[in-house]
């Protein structure tokens, strides 16, 4: 179809044929994934929105798109205000909006493979107040009008060896069996793709930038499991790796299998499993135990082997990013560079390392006003050339078989303004506050979030995203359950207590609409800390990312002695770790970047 308006019109016509008065369009897949394969990009196809989080509702005369504060500017740039109204989350929600706007007695369709059971329950209650009804569809109406919709990936699974996982799949499954025994349950459904990849020590290439395979699994109380994945995706090496304890089935047999579990008590994650799973279990006579996926927490708490692999990946990745920053400093003033040229150059530096499997997400290569969009995704239309007098923000990461990286740096192109230096220094102070935080066991990320914001709050400014997200081990770059985010924010997740072994990002920022953006991001590891005289067991962070922080943007006079000491110590470590990997010219640049600052 030639335009997004045509697509919306076609969907409305399909809804009319299906006898529906509306339809809900989330940005997810059958596994409640954050990043999804091209076949599941229904929201982008319908609206033009290219962000990584959002949803929409279509009624006969109205349509609304829902995004959080990260996408306030982006959604207005990409989605037509003529066809769509913009709704801000969490100030409102789909169910609240439907309660206000759905016609009396309306039938609102939803795809039960794209929503959780809790969402269905909540939306059903909200609509009931209007005499309206939520209706599960057997065929997604967008799929009916999306003529050239891509097919799901056919990529084959690969084995993630035990020397990189630190634990066998059998041991992980027996750990789940012990958990099921304590819960008195017979089985647990695993629907999240990264949980399945972690549990079975396999990886895939079905989702761009996330090495997972489209699959479902059911883990049993005897340590065995049933894995549902297309047979053509499983080679003899994977079959041998899985062994006799894992029974293989075609992916499309999953729903039927669920209906066969009559009388069983089955654990289902209410956050990570779609409503169709619960519906199939209930229709088959199984009893449902609402519990978090048993892979989530063990996956988040990295073992020594995973930590060592991540450190090795970070060291290599840091050398590539350092070489890139040197290139930007030398070449940007000459002209002829734009956002896309820069991101391709960064990819080239990473590829020269060897071992790069993929990027960990689409690189945010954002110059000037595009940097004010926290999750900017460049296109040919939005691509900006580098000019002097503003900032360049680059947020990027790599997928290596021994670790997943994520780093953001902000650099000036030409001379920065006094305001840019002030804001950057405040972001740095917030970053240091997280990096140096000490806290007792049991502390949640929400309790630390304001540490990063205080220097910005003191200037009357803030940022509209979380301060930190979990990171996987050659898995999802955004991994729960740990977060550093305000309570009640769309990024707060389950507000999990932090534990030693968790990897999390430290990324405060500042964004001035239509002018520039600033973010400083390193990954950190939660570690135990010995504190003299402590009456509680204490935790803190160990920095994992080592790449220079731009000194031209720092007002040293604003830093405390402790903050200045941290910065100089950090740069000394950067030089020691990254320097030996660089040629003499690159190392000479690194030495200048890492030279100690003084007052």
TrEMBL record:
GO terms for molecular function: metal ion binding; metalloaminopeptidase activity. Residues 310-528 form the Peptidase M24 domain. Residues 7-138 form the Creatinase N-terminal domain. Keywords: Aminopeptidase, Hydrolase, Metal-binding, Protease. Residues 537-597 form the Peptidase M24 C-terminal domain. It comes from the Bacteria. One of its GO terms (cellular component) is cytoplasm. Pfam families: Creatinase_N, Creatinase_N_2, Peptidase_M24, Peptidase_M24_C. PANTHER family: XAA-PRO AMINOPEPTIDASE 1. Belongs to the peptidase M24B family. This is Aminopeptidase P family protein.
